[in-house]
Amino acid sequence: MAENADNLPRRTLKHHQLRPGMTIQEITELSFSYATLDAETVRFLKANFKGASGVLIGNSGRETVPIAQVKELDQLEAIVDLPGDLIIAKVALGLPESLYKRGFLEFKVTDSPDAPAAEEPEPEAPAIAVGSDEAKRAYQERLIQVKTFLETVNPALESRDRASNVIEEMMDRGRAGHFSSKGVESAIEEVTGQNLGSAMQAIAGLKNSDQTYAHCVDMSVILQGCYTDLLEQSGKKVDDLVGRLILVSGFMHDIGKSKLPKEIIDSTVAFAPDSKERIILRNHVTYGAQILSDMGMHKAAIDVAHYHHVKKDTSLLASYPDVPFDVVPSMVRFAAVVDVYQALIGRRSYKKNWVPGKAIDYILKRRNSEFDERMVDRFVASMGKYPVVSLIRLNTGDLAYVLMIAPKEHPERPVVSIIENAQGEMITHHEILDLMVEPDIYATEVVDHYEHYNETEDQAFRIFQSIEIS
Ligand SMILES: [Fe+2]
Ligand SMILES: [Fe+2]
Fold it and tell me: Ligand 1 centre and the CA of 214: distance in Å?
């Protein structure tokens, strides 16, 4: 008999917070790979979730169906109504780990009614104290990561150029009637094989991007970086296949623009919100979905192309196509946040670009109107209050570039390199400074690096590129 859990309070937990004795009532977040079910997964679900229901996303929104009716190619968003006597619903030792490996990321649970007083969920990780021995040990690890990151800046710059050429060529071929993903695979191989994602993400915050080709590359690497962070918070590496799928989805998300006149997509003037050009531009989402579906691409990539402009408040002029927000899968909602973020930090010659810290503020202001707030919170947690490459003013008056974001408990304490002293003199000998081990130094504000340095000479990027740590 299933337990009657209706009157027990439900808590939302991550897999590492599950404890023996708890009962899983719902699995509220699944990894990206559930965007298209394969035969093996369908078999696994039917064998292990008898009596439960699946929340599917279809053309008319979310629908809940018995798990027995779930089939290949369905898009599964959540699993609900788990009978209490299901083996997989009873948390036992080892179960959280195997659930996680299966791509189950977030759970609604109840505590057993006869268990001793319900414990508070454990904090995800105890906060490390500033200046502690633990902080010093963590610094050694961070140092290695930061050095690797800096070493990849130049190769990442070349890869970004190559990848954006690949996208431009792909769109040009498409305009001539031949759609193929030729070149995209090798561009993705370069990013993943050489581990260039973080450096490419950083470059996106310092270099100009056109509004279509480099935009797609930058949006893609930021999306992949953030999604990887989300998974790695639980101590895991993102599955290689899923990582590639995310990159492809980002690379191709605006492919529908290849059906539009090149003068419109390469335009450097701003179109008024109700202009003929803006209305034409809106069509790129339906064209994109059609092109990717004709190319036989994964459903997740098709959905990103189709729905990345749907706002939570669908009455907004900037929301299209005209579908309820409910039909937009979680990962696309996440991609929508990244798309807007990249559009803000990428340069348009008709609009000033924003530094990463300010773009984060813009997104936070629209947390409830334009976006799924849960996705905004995750995005901001991944990017940090002071994203990598932010130019920040320290309390000492020095200016520093952020090389690694701060732990979330101490947002004002990232890893930085000072590039200019309080007197405005440039520093030529660079050092890595982890503000977690420097109790007296902390970040006070973001400085707009485009305003502070000469923008036309690309000075902000050149200075960042010159940071060399011996
Ligand atoms: Fe778009
Ligand atoms: Fe876009």
Answer: 13
Span from the CA of 99 to the centroid of ligand 1 (angstroms): 34
Q: Which ligand is nearest to the CA of 335?
A: 2
| Distance between Cα 157 and ligand 1 center (Å) | 23
Residue 109 has pLDDT above 50, yes or no: yes
Supply the pTM of this predicted model. Answer: 0.82
Six-digit token string for 440: 């007296």
Whether residue 441 is found in the same domain as residue 333: no
CA 456 from centre of chain: 30
Contact criterion met (CB below 8 Å) for 271 and 277? yes
Cα angle 432, 433, 436 (rounded to 5 degrees) comes to 140
Half-sphere exposure of 20 (CA within 13 A, CB side): 3
Q: Which amino acid is at 166?
A: V
Which of 25-34, 123-132, 194-203, 390-399 ranks highest by mean pLDDT?
390-399
Domain-located, residue 118: no
Q: Is residue 71 located within the same domain as residue 198?
A: no
Q: Give domain status of residue 56, yes or no.
A: yes
What's the CA-to-centroid distance between 128 and ligand 1, angstroms?
A: 40
Q: What angle do CA 191, 192, 193 make, to 5 degrees?
A: 100
pLDDT, greater one: 442 or 453: 442
Same domain, 422 and 353: no
